[in-house]
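Page 37, top half.
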Amino acid sequence: GFDSDGERDSEVEDVWENCSYNNFIIGSDGKIYANKSYNYENYSTETYIHKDFITSWSMDGSLQFETDLGELRTDEEYAYINTMTVAEDGTISMILSGDSIYKMTVDAQGNASGKVPLSEDAGKIFNNMDRVINKGDGTFVVLYYDENDWTKEFMVSYDPATDALGEAIQLPSNFNYGGYNILGISDDSELL
């Protein structure tokens, strides 16, 4: 950038600012949800800000709420929204990954909870996950690797509201080599 005299403005040169939306979900409550991520970095003043928000719109595009989740990434701990789902009552459940594994919720009115550590068993699954599939009912199916043998892959259901895991099923050994994809059709999804 240049100042009013046509000279280079060194402060503008040292600033990076970005805003993006991720993890879009259409809830069964008829609303659209997304994670808004805001980043500001000023290298000359060593100012670094990363904030996350949960944003909700009605189907006509009108803003329902935008909830500030604060700085999930700090000098002390790195965390980010890995995945999220919406329950039928409009409660958003998020899995935060990074230095530790947490869950966090935002209720239908936009009120956020604090970060809550996952159980040890759920934490191991998310630390070794391959893919998370949103089931559309507020729960997930998680594909994950055995932490001691990465040739073994499993599938398990997970309910973030209760931190409950279903019974793990070992997948065929060629599953991750043979390829798979997620096919979304209407309100149903199938694992192919």
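Page 37, bottom half:
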Amino acid sequence: PSDDIGRVLTVANDTPDQVIGAIFGRGRDILRLSEDAFLLRFQAPALPAGSSRKIRLLPEHVIRNTDLDVRVEEIVEPREVEVYVDRFLETEIPVQTFVDIQTAESYTQVGIAVVRPGTVKVTGPAMQIGEILVLQTDSLVRKGVRQDIVTKLALRLPPIPRMRTDVRTVDVHVDVQELAEYDITNVPIRVA
């Protein structure tokens, strides 16, 4: 991680993926428009971490990506968005699995389930990322197991806007061995 990473700000809330706008132009040009003909982009004002501001969406925020003779007259919905700003955080968070293995008769699990990687790099808004103590995986439940288990489990990520992880799955290995019983004969015993 960079030394500057704690000073970088990020938008901490969800913002709309699409907006509805009133378009002006000739009918045939409007009918030929594709979904990516316009892009709405705005620069949020400089805000301190932990604050928010409502921003009114205007036709001036729209970038036109078409040669057709059309323009956005008005942003209909939403007319404004609220932007929450927070510090950008990058941290390592341990992974926790729920493993319930029941071996078959005369078999046993040796040790605990091994998870790789044991920690995951997580980035996102500091206030939300800082509250995560562990990342859990999907459950692994098996009965009558007679051999090692090597599988991938998906991470169960909390619903935090703008949170990113460097992996989406982890490898889990459970060592299962057969119990053996051997008779040893003719072992000399000395009594003192």
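Margin note: The longest strand covers residues 80-103.
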